[in-house]
């Protein structure tokens, strides 16, 4: 049995909304291996990544294919040949070998560069630091939360890069933004977003003229669901179906796993 492939917003996408990556072997969901306060990773150290229980996914430092001296803090498929990156914290600001990623003493997730300056961080939502843990889940979701709870203070699924995975949703005012090139993970030229008004819209952006790390201007949309006022969320369910749900309980089908079987 094969699991559903992820939705990947490709750097060279034109009219097609979605491209599907090769099918991956299914794995039984296992209990997460919690990452405790004080745990850390370094790009060149003994421990460079943490794995999900099945080993399907990893979170940690990935060396850039285009520059061997720079690293992403990323989540990737570890059991496929090309180890596809599905999320990155610092897509527009790679770090060097002296960087560090840790679940800090104050309960925050912190990525620091080789000078010790914070590049990216996540607050734990006011939790007591010693009650905080992080985990790489078999779903591909990297989470921060309280012990013995499935309610997360932060999760990578709520901050997508250019990929959606099975069981993931996109709520209003969230989006996928393509990478610039296949091996350049910085902001790319295409954005698929669920707008606050309920419209699911596909835009080209002003990259590469837009400075890295800023909110780029959007050109006129060339596809929209036309659901202003009634659209709700984009859903990628575990069966491999992708659809846009409406507030009245109906939905707009985007694609189905059956189309790719």
From TrEMBL:
Taxonomic superkingdom: Eukaryota
Transmembrane segments: none
Keywords: Hemagglutinin, Kinase, Lectin, Mannose-binding, Receptor, Repeat, Signal, Transferase
Cross-referenced PROSITE patterns: BULB_LECTIN
InterPro entries: Bulb-type_lectin_dom, Bulb-type_lectin_dom_sf, G-type_lectin_kinases/EP1-like
Residues annotated as signal peptide: 1-27
Coiled-coil blocks: none
One GO MF term: kinase activity
Residue ranges of every copy of the Bulb-type lectin domain listed in the record: 35-157
SMART domains associated with the record: B_lectin
GO biological process, one term: response to other organism
Protein name (record): G-type lectin S-receptor-like serine/threonine-protein kinase RLK1
Organism the protein comes from: Anthurium amnicola
Lineage: Eukaryota, Viridiplantae, Streptophyta, Embryophyta, Tracheophyta
């Amino acid at each position: 049995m094969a699991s559903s492939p992820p939705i990947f917003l490709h750097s060279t996408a034109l009219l097609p909304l979605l491209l599907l990556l090769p099918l991956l072997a299914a794995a039984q969901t296992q209990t997460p291996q919690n990452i405790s306060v004080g745990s850390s990773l370094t790009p060149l150290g003994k421990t460079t990544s943490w794995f999900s229980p099945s080993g399907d996914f990893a979170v940690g430092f990935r060396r850039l294919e285009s520059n061997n001296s720079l690293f992403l803090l990323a989540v990737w498929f570890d059991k496929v040949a090309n180890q596809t990156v599905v999320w990155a914290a610092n897509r527009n600001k790679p770090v060097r070998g002296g960087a560090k990623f840790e679940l800090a003493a104050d309960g925050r997730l912190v990525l620091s560069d080789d000078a010790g300056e914070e590049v990216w961080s996540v607050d734990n939502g006011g939790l007591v630091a010693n009650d905080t843990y992080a985990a790489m889940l078999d779903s591909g979701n990297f989470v921060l939360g309280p012990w013995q709870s499935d309610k997360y203070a932060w999760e990578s699924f709520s901050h997508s890069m250019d990929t959606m995975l099975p069981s993931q949703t996109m709520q209003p005012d969230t989006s996928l933004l393509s990478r610039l090139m296949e091996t350049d993970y910085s902001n790319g030229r295409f954005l698929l977003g669920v707008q606050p008004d309920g419209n699911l819209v596909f835009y080209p952006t002003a990259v590469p003229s837009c400075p890295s790390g800023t909110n780029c201007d959007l050109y006129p949309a060339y596809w929209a669901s036309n659901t202003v006022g009634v659209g709700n969320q984009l859903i990628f369910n575990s069966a491999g179906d992708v659809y846009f749900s409406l507030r009245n309980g109906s939905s707009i089908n985007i694609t189905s796993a059956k189309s790719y079987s």
